[in-house]
Specification:
The complex is a heterotrimer.
Chain A lengths: L1 H14 L25 H15 L16 H12 L1
Chain B lengths: L1 E5 L2 E6 L3 H12 L8 H17 L8 E6 L22 H12 L6 E3 L5 H14 L5 E8 L3 H9 L20 E2 L1 E8 L7 E10 L12 H10 L8 E3 L6 H13 L7 E2 L2 H4 L6 H15 L1 E2 L21 E2 L4 E8 L3 E9 L1
Parallel strand pairs in B: 2-6, 3-4, 3-5, 9-10, 9-13
Antiparallel strand pairs in B: 1-2, 5-7, 8-14, 11-12, 13-14
Helix pairs in contact in B: 1-2, 2-3, 4-9, 6-7
Chain C lengths: L1 E11 L2 E4 L2 E5 L6 H11 L12 H14 L12 E7 L4 H10 L6 H4 L6 H10 L5 E5 L5 H11 L5 E9 L4 E11 L1 H6 L3 E2 L2 H9 L1
Helix pairs in contact in C: 1-2, 2-5, 6-8
The chains are: A mainly alpha, B alpha/beta, C alpha+beta.
Amino acid sequence: MENLIENLKKQIIEQLNLAEVKPGDIDPSAPLFGEGLGLDSIDALELIVLLEKNYGLKIQEPKDAKHIFQSVKTLAEYITSQKK
Amino acid sequence: MQNHTFNGIAYCTSVIENKLLDSTFVQQTKSNPKEFTRLEKMCILSVQDVITHSNIDVKNKRTLFIFSTTKGNIDLLENNTPEIPEDRIYLHKIAQVISTYFGFANKPMVVSNACISGLLVIIIAKRLLTDNQYDNIIVTGADVVSTFTLSGFNSLGALSNQVCKPFDKNRTGINLGEAVASVLVNNQQKEDSIEIVSACSANDANHISGPSRTGEGLYKCLQKVLANSIVPDFINAHGTATEFNDEMESIAFNRAGLQNTPTNSLKGYYGHTLGAAGVLESIFCAESLRQGKIIASTGFENQGTSVAINIITKTESKKSTSCLKTASGFGGCNASVLYKLN
Amino acid sequence: MSAYILSHTKIKNNCLWHNGKLITQHSKTDNYISFLEESYKSLNLSYPKFFKMDVLSKLGILCAEQILVDKNISQFSKEKTAIVLSNKNSSLQTDIAYSKTMSDFPSPSLFVYTLPNIVTGEISIKHKITGENAFFIEPVFNAELLHNYTELLLQESDAVLCGWLNVDEKACEGFLYFVAKQTTKDEKKINFIKHNPNSITQLYIN
């Protein structure tokens, strides 16, 4: 899980062009949207692409993904749960 | 409007059949259809129609051609078309091809400003004419459906797999459509001519792809355009049937006191035609005024916006003297025009 | 009241100028994308969204910054400032970049930049400018067109940010300038340039 979280941080930074952010800056439990990284609706769509591209997981609507994209931790938990 | 599948995803879109386009083109122009792209053929037919009906002299230095498109010949990126030179990917080149075909004396003006482009070129024409720089301006708005735009709007989750339902509670997104529409704009007031009373564009300064939640830019346009004493008899909205656009427009209309004005979006009949929309829908506004008829919005059953507006649900006779046309687009742009029947 | 050009910037050959003064230059590489990002850092812009933008928007943001933070400019109403831009290529480089993602994983963050006026949106967002917009496509820089439309807009707008922002495969070119009406009294205060096609062309080519 730790490994997955660290990888996710790097992938998020790359996929979302967060050039000024380092993995160490991202608190895995902090909200991704609103405060924290302050991501927006386009970022949410890119996270959907990231999930499919890197983990083969398809999400149809950003609305369904609200709880999944809450934080890096919830994202990691979702990926882990789907692998079973 | 038809259902299609693209990369395994179903969507609903409106396209012009190639055989019909080519046969019409050959019949009406006697030119080789292989030398022009789909968009160019559609444009030539459209402009030819305006020139024939209006009998204006395009070789006159007081005549101008203004062209509006968002993606032009973007289908050249995906199709193998050896007969079409590569430089036709450039929007100014498309305008030049059309202009040269008809022998316009002046170089064409080209505007590409997202989905307000079609309305914006009408606004620009009005400003040039008010300043007496030209006598006649042919304004053309054009865009085709392409894998590029389908793919793109699909990546945004914006496409609907059924006929779109503007302002409805169960709206699920846009239908893409393709069209070319042309109008002649000049200073001649005749019976049945449509006057451009007032016009405005403004930016939300909020987000590049989502509209302002409070409709700032559109509301600003409405305030400006309605500053005279004319109250529009109906509104033809942008009404793309996305969650955010329709919500924003309804808020802007309410803020401007237009919540009871009969309102429609016609995009359910022919799709969102992007750079053509502003011109195409202005033509429908003009015809509604001339024929004394208001046209129903497609698919509206239940209020789907947080504030109510008065959606036209039945096509019927209604004598109108003025109407409002609105448009909004990516990049936070908005535009509005008030039309009046003479 | 006549119109004057109060401020202008240029990006060309990996150099950024403001009012004729060299602000940043990148001598280490021909890569214009690196140059734009290095310029962002040298200017201490502190605007993380910059890195999400495509090249056209990065170019526009950098050119607009020096003008819009200029103290002569901040007095003008942002609600009555128009933005009139132009270029030859529309958003072609980004269109091509997006089309390359189409077969595998289409990128929504690239697609939203496949329109030339997105740069107008980005400038508007950063500086809260909410006036009129227009984006013209021309085969080459057209001073007459920009001058003509700007003068028409100035009948109702207080100011116009105008110019040319073009991205090619191998280079990018930006030229933005700020036009506003000034009374003769103000004219004598600072060295304003009269707004006409000739002066615009001179600023563009020099």
